[in-house]
Structures are given as structure tokens and as C-alpha cells.
Specification:
alpha/beta; Rossmann fold; GMP Synthetase, Chain A, domain 3; 9-stranded mixed beta sheet; 5-stranded antiparallel beta sheet; 28% strand
């Protein structure tokens, strides 16, 4: 670690590694003054910020367990997660602390800054690597979110596996374009801080602010979903990313063929909360065919597709289990393998293609229809900027695909004619033109909300 190398950069604020270490030591003392001991859980409810990162690292140094909370959740959802996690205290931005639900000891950032620090402890004190380091709640795409218990060893293994394929060094800058309460955002922190690289915080996650950050700062890496990267490129007038960007890691679904052509730095990944983020990654020097997949397994991680088509993952990145939910844990952890619930296939070169979540698979007239296939076909149309496909009830076929489509200038092209030469007739969807696709905080489309909206049989 180079003490004077940049560690964090945000609007109007920057810290080198020496300054960051000093702030973390002080914050650790504040935690201890508030009664936090090793093994205690600490909630953290705030937008991405330097303060968030400092608090996160202080929790780790104190040997406590981080419980990052989604800033977009409604009060009853936060209450449920807090009831499950039972943190000793919960830190919050002042705005969120003002509406924090009762039943938890809340400490707003303003109050937090006035706490007189206690004993800071030795630098690097993290305890047993097999201990829980974080309770990260899943996105809840298949039901109520579950708290994945991520160990310190999981986080270290994940960062090292990623670094073996996409190495970082002092001087590199990763744009934190994902929320830190999401496992992908936590992964950015772990990878950068472990390598001595810099974490760059944009003003917001909007495409405009991401474009500004990329153009004003020598960002070398960023993490996005396909739709966000397309909006960033549009914000640059259709130009590709600047040459100083080495890699744009695209998660949350496959990379469209159009994006592969428009952005040479785009490399897809596949992962989930239960695997501490990435388990596959397209290699930066991969050919075009490989770049249309989710890539090969990272070193030290095993990948297979079970006879029922479900993707299984094994390795040191797999979570310990779900917090206080033995049944749910037993359902996904079997003989050392994590049952992801996603359907996929692995080609002869070891590249993974993710077809759908098992719950998202559409069975229409006895035929399997994969939403991702239709979405990619729609995104090949030059006028389509975003698309989401879900299954909806149908009296004749049982279920049929419905495509929500966003187009440039709100045009309504004949997409069925366009799709007719690209996918089989039984896969042709009903089309609904929309102004935007509803998305979760991690950028993934909110399929559950769309299905609920169109659940009436047609």
C-alpha cells in the first residue's frame, strides 16, 4: 500500500491511504465508545459517500458485522430487515435518521461525528477470517429478501479471484456506479482497497453524472448494467468510452451484441449476493463470441449446469448461509454447491450463457421461452433503448411473453415484423411501449413489479 496514493475521490473531497487510515481509526474508536464489540452487528443506512466507506471499514476493523441497508426501501421493509439482523446500533445519514423506524438504536452521521472516540485497536485487526463480515440482503426478486451471511474469507477470496483476471494497481480508479449496500458495490470497495487503487464516487447514478465522472476523471474501471452503459454511451453522443477506461464490467444480465460493437471495454460478469458478487468474467482479450456470454469461471471457482438446467457454483466465495433460515439455506447449499436458481448453459470453451432465472422461465404451450433471448433480439433494433420480457397468463397457451419496450423519441416501430425473422413464432411477445423500465436499486429490472402489473389473464 502506498500511503500517499489516492484512496477515495468524491465531489469536493479526496483522501489518500494515510488519511483514510486515520479516519478509520477514529471511526473505530467511536464504534467502541458506542458499545460495539467484536461480533456485534452494525446497520449502515446511507447513500454512497466517503462517510459510508469510512464507517464500513471501521466496522470491519472493530471485528463487527456490517449490515448494509437499502436506501430505497420503505419503512416496513427496513423494519423487517432490522428485526432479522438485530444490530447493536445502526448508523444513518442525517436525512434517513430523521425517519428511522423505532426499535433500533440509531446514530445519525451528525451525532456520529460528535462521539468521543474510545480505544481504536490495532490496525488491520479483523479477527478470524471465517467470521461473518457482512449480512447482505438479496434483492428479493423471487420473494422476500434473505440475509446472506458473507464471511471475511468470502470477501477476500472474491477480490483475489477477480484480480487474477482483471488486476488493479495504485493509480487505477474504479467508478463506484453501484450502491454500496449491494454486493456489487461492496465488491468494488474490496477490490480497490486490497490493491491500493482509488474509488471514485460520482455525484449520482444518473447517466449524466456518470458521463461527467468518466470525462472529468481518469477513471479506469466501472461497474454497470447493460441499460446504464447504453445510456452513458448515448450521453456521449454515441461515442465509445474514453481510452483511459480499461474495463466496463457489465452485470445483471447479458451484454447485447450492439453494446459489444459500440464499447470494446464492455466485459460481462455473472454473480449473485450469495456468491459475494462475481463468479464469472469475460476475459479482457476475449473474442466477439465470448464477449456475448457471461465469460468463464474465475480462478478457484467451480461452475456447472445441473441436469435440470440450473447453474451451480462452488468455491471459497460462497456464503456461509442465510441468516436464521436453515430451511432456505438447505435448499440452496447442497454438497458444497450453491444452487443459484438461474438457468444456463456452458459452451465448449467454458463460457457461461445465462438464460433466465428459473422463476422467470416462460412456458408457453409446452415450449420453454427464455426472456433474455427475446430481450437481446429487441435490443438489436436500432430504435430500441431498453427492453424487459416477462411471462403473463394466457387462457389458450397458459403463459405468453410480454415485452415492455422503451424506444428513442417514444416511436412505436413494427417490432413484431422485426422479430419475425430473428426468433421462432412461439417466442413472439406482446408488445407494450413504455417510457422507462422499472428497476431495482442494483440496476436489475424489477420483473416482479411488472408481472404484478400485468397478472390479469388476457
Amino acid at each position: 500500500m502506498i500511503p500517499d496514493a489516492p484512496a477515495l475521490a468524491a465531489d469536493g473531497e479526496s483522501l489518500d491511504y494515510r488519511e483514510l487510515a486515520a479516519r478509520v481509526a477514529t471511526a473505530t474508536g467511536r464504534l467502541r465508545a458506542l458499545g460495539v464489540a467484536a461480533g456485534d452487528r452494525v446497520g449502515l443506512w446511507a447513500p454512497n459517500s466517503v462517510a459510508w466507506i469510512v464507517a464500513c471499514l471501521a466496522v470491519e476493523r472493530a471485528g463487527a458485522v456490517l449490515v448494509p441497508l437499502n436506501t430505497r426501501l420503505a419503512d416496513p421493509e427496513i423494519e423487517w430487515q432490522l428485526a432479522l439482523a438485530r444490530p447493536r446500533i445502526a448508523l444513518a445519514s442525517d436525512e434517513l435518521a430523521a425517519r428511522a423506524p423505532a426499535g433500533t438504536r440509531w446514530v445519525g452521521f451528525d451525532e456520529w461525528r460528535r462521539v468521543v472516540p474510545g480505544e481504536t485497536g490495532a490496525a488491520g485487526e479483523t479477527g478470524d477470517p471465517s467470521r461473518d463480515a457482512a449480512i447482505v440482503f438479496t434483492s428479493g426478486t423471487t420473494g422476500r429478501p434473505k440475509g446472506a451471511a458473507i464471511t471475511r474469507a468470502n470477501r477476500i477470496a472474491s477480490a483475489r479471484a477477480a484480480a487474477a483476471v482483471l488486476p488493479l494497481a495504485p493509480g487505477d480508479r474504479w467508478l463506484a456506479s453501484l450502491p454500496f449496500f449491494h454486493v456489487g458495490g461492496l465488491g468494488i470497495l474490496e477490490r480497490c482497497l486490497g490493491a491500493g487503487a482509488c474509488i471514485e464516487l460520482p455525484a449520482s447514478f444518473s447517466a449524466d453524472d456518470l458521463v461527467l465522472a468518466i470525462e472529468r476523471s481518469p477513471v479506469t474501471h466501472l461497474s454497470v448494467v447493460d441499460a446504464t452503459l447504453r445510456r452513458v454511451l448515448e450521453g456521449r453522443g454515441g461515442r465509445g468510452l474514453p481510452a483511459h477506461v480499461k474495463a466496463a464490467v457489465v452485470g445483471g444480465g447479458p451484454v447485447s451484441a450492439a453494446l459489444v460493437e459500440a464499447c470494446p471495454q464492455a466485459i460481462a460478469t455473472y454473480g449473485l449476493t450469495e456468491s459475494c458478487a462475481m463468479v464469472t468474467l469475460v476475459r479482457p482479450d476475449a473474442d466477439r463470441e465470448a464477449r456475448l456470454t457471461a465469460g468463464r469461471a474465475l480462478p478457484g471457482i467451480d461452475l456447472r449446469v445441473a441436469p435440470d438446467g440450473v447453474i451451480d457454483v462452488r468455491g471459497p466465495v460462497v456464503m456461509r448461509g442465510y441468516l436464521d433460515d436453515e430451511d432456505a439455506t438447505a435448499a440452496v447449499l447442497r454438497d458444497g454447491w450453491l444452487r443459484t436458481g438461474d438457468l444456463g448453459e456452458i459452451d465448449a470453451n467454458g463460457n457461461l450463457r445465462v438464460l433466465a432465472r428459473r422463476d422467470d422461465l416462460i412456458v408457453s404451450g409446452g415450449e420453454n421461452v427464455y426472456p433474455a433471448e427475446i430481450e437481446q433480439a429487441l435490443l438489436a433494433h436500432p430504435g430500441v433503448t431498453d427492453a424487459l420480457v416477462v411471462g403473463v397468463p394466457d387462457e389458450r397457451w397458459g403463459e405468453v411473453p410480454l415485452a415492455l419496450v422503451v424506444t428513442r423519441g417514444n416511436a412505436e416501430p413494427d417490432l413484431l415484423a422485426f422479430l419475425g425473422t430473428r426468433i421462432a413464432r412461439y417466442k413472439l411477445p406482446r408488445i407494450a411501449f413504455e417510457r422507462e423500465i422499472p428497476r431495482l436499486a442494483n440496476g436489475k429490472p424489477d420483473r416482479a413489479a411488472v408481472r404484478a402489473r400485468f397478472r390479469t389473464p388476457g
